[in-house]
Specification:
The protein is an alpha/beta fold. About 50% of the residues lie in helices and about 10% in strands. The protein contains 13 helices and eight strands. The chain has a four-stranded parallel sheet with strand order 7-2-1-8. A two-stranded antiparallel ribbon has the order 3-4. Helix 6 packs parallel to helix 9 and helix 6 crosses helix 11. The longest helix has 22 residues.
């Protein structure tokens, strides 16, 4: 919280595809209101691009040439490689970085670690469409795992009917899983943007679908395709399904979640991709 009369200082932690998109929004918004300091520092994991530091390229070109090429970043957004420098004296922290372990909401992790109030912002949306200022809604869901299933179907060229069946099965398993472990959630939530809308958007347009399709076509492992196709972005669906399977195995619930289990086995245990249709449909 700021002192009386002081202005809010926003710090952005993360500068990948989504982080850069958010920097465009925050950088523009802070200039519209007197309550905010004009400069926004954005933490960048330093990389070398064609012999130049990524932070230098962003600050000179006002564009993230690696993760969001072709979209201007406001000049009041400053790329900084030192995390402590970025968060120093900040009153609002915006986290936009990949989660790498566990299925706990990141809002809970941040709240417990920093003892601060947290709000979450996510799907159903795709980063580049937000960058293009297209309409979007924002909430949260289990979309990335189902998107991998949709991408597998696309790679197998099984058609839209099969893909629709996979999306339906995934949606039902998402609902059952969340209700099983978070019984207080309302049924209506699943039919808002965080539920079916997020599932559909990412199953047809997200990075998880894209990489899963290539996984089927090329036979290359997901971690290799992540490096080849995403140019430093992270693939969340495989991490999430691994954590889901860990929970299901520990609880003895794999038979209750056949699609999630099949996607895990295809991704990590060598189960043939065609099994997604044979075992589920």
């Amino acid at each position: 919280m700021t002192k009386e009369g002081a202005r809010e200082k926003v710090a952005l932690i993360g500068s990948g595809n989504w982080g850069t998109v958010i920097s465009r929004i925050i950088g523009g918004n802070v200039t519209k209101y007197n309550e905010f300091q004009q400069e926004v520092k954005m933490w960048v994991f330093e990389e070398i691009i064609n012999g130049r530091k990524l932070t230098d390229l962003i600050n000179e070109k006002h564009e993230n040439v690696k993760y969001l090429p072709g979209f201007a970043i406001p000049e009041n957004v400053k790329a900084v490689p030192d995390l402590l420098d970025v968060v120093n004296d900040a009153t609002i922290l915006v986290f936009c970085i990949p989660h790498q372990a566990g299925i706990r909401p990141m809002s809970e992790v941040i709240n417990k670690s920093l003892s601060i109030s947290v709000c979450s912002l996510s799907g159903a949306n795709i980063a580049n469409e937000i960058a293009e200022e297209k309409f979007s809604e924002t909430t949260i869901g289990f979309n990335n795992v189902i998107a991998i299933g949709g991408g597998i179907v696309d790679g197998l060229k099984l058609g839209e009917n099969t893909k629709a069946a996979i999306i339906r099965s995934g949606f039902l398993e998402m609902k059952k899983f969340i209700k099983w472990f978070y019984s207080g959630i309302k049924d209506e939530t699943f039919f808002e943007s965080c539920g079916i809308a997020d599932v559909i958007a990412t199953s047809y347009g997200g990075r998880n679908r894209k990489v899963a399709e290539s996984f089927v076509i090329t036979g290359k492992p997901f971690d290799q395709l992540e490096k080849e196709l995403l140019q430093g972005q992270k693939l969340q669906g495989t991490l999430t399904v691994k954590e889901i399977n860990r929970v299901l195995s520990r609880k003895g619930l794999n038979d209750e979640f056949k699609l999630f289990t099949t996607i895990y086995r295809i991704a990590f245990e060598g189960l043939p991709p065609k099994s997604i249709a044979e075992d589920i449909i």
